[in-house]
């Protein structure tokens, strides 16, 4: 890794943090509160989750960059307040060179050295599946190339899909897109949520077969309720083993949200243990801004080795 000295100091890529760690870790993903009144509660939650000693934390923003400014402020504040390396999500659909350059410059000015480069959701038109976008940045790989060329010392992560992206025609097509993003300059991969550990293993093996050796960090989403599970599956296109779905449905029928939450925690613990046994470099927890659930999972998993 190149550590670039400048007026702002030394740039630290998360990929270098992973390499220097040398053993499994947790990282955390948050989303910005909807309004300023919820910020105090958000930071209390974040403070609780710092007990996990995450290697880094990431912050999402709304579709189409709807909360981009708030996300930038949060990702900078997380690093300042908790001394944790932070990563901003950045989508490129609907963006231009000037707006991307401006946002990346602002990130660097507030001490943020890492982004998760994403395409973002395609704009929708009434009665049509997707609207055509004339923009230069149609794919995450376009954004990766642009950032690597214009901000060469910025750390770049990209998304990976153990279950193919809903728009991918095949597994092979999805693998090729992931490899393209890495060859265009991405440092590492964080996966979309999945519920079958075999999918992660197969995904990593296939990337290795295609000559990719960057870290692939599995993303784990704790199941909070049966309704949220169904909503999430419909939005992201992830698949779920039939038995797990039936188990969650039965828990919902027998005990409602509390029972599903307990079953979800137990499943996440098993999932994480299996991933670590397979050699996953670390675990990226999609926190849903919920401290209690994540802390329970980490406690029950036990020490990372």
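^ Assign residues to that structure.
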């Amino acid at each position: 890794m190149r550590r670039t000295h400048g007026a702002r100091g030394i740039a630290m890529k998360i990929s270098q943090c992973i390499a220097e760690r040398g053993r499994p870790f947790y990282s955390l993903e948050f989303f910005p509160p909807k309004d300023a009144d919820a910020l105090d509660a958000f930071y209390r939650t974040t403070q609780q989750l710092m007990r996990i000693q995450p290697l880094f934390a990431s912050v999402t923003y709304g579709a189409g960059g709807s909360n981009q400014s708030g996300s930038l402020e949060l990702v900078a504040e997380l690093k300042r307040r908790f001394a944790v390396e932070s990563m901003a999500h950045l989508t490129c659909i609907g963006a231009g060179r000037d707006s991307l350059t401006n946002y990346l410059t602002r990130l660097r000015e507030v001490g943020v050295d890492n982004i998760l480069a994403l395409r973002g959701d395609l704009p929708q038109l009434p009665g049509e599946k997707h609207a055509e976008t004339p923009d230069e940045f149609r794919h995450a790989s376009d954004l990766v190339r642009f950032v690597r060329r214009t901000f060469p010392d910025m750390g770049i992560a990209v998304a990976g899909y153990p279950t193919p992206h809903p728009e991918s025609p095949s597994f092979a097509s999805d693998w090729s897109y992931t490899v393209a993003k890495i060859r265009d300059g991405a440092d590492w991969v964080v996966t979309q949520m999945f519920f079958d550990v075999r999918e992660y293993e197969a995904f990593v093996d296939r990337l290795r077969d295609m000559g990719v050796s960057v870290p692939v960090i599995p993303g784990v989403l704790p199941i909070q309720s049966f309704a949220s599970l169904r909503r999430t599956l419909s939005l992201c296109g992830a698949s779920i083993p039939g038995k797990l779905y039936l188990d969650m449905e039965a828990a919902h029928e027998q005990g409602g949200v509390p029972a599903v939450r307990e079953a979800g925690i137990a499943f996440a613990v098993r999932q994480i243990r299996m991933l670590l046994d397979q050699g996953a470099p670390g675990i990226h927890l999609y926190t849903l801004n919920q401290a209690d659930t994540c802390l329970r999972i980490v406690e029950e998993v036990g020490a990372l080795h």
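The chain has one domain: 5-224+281-300.
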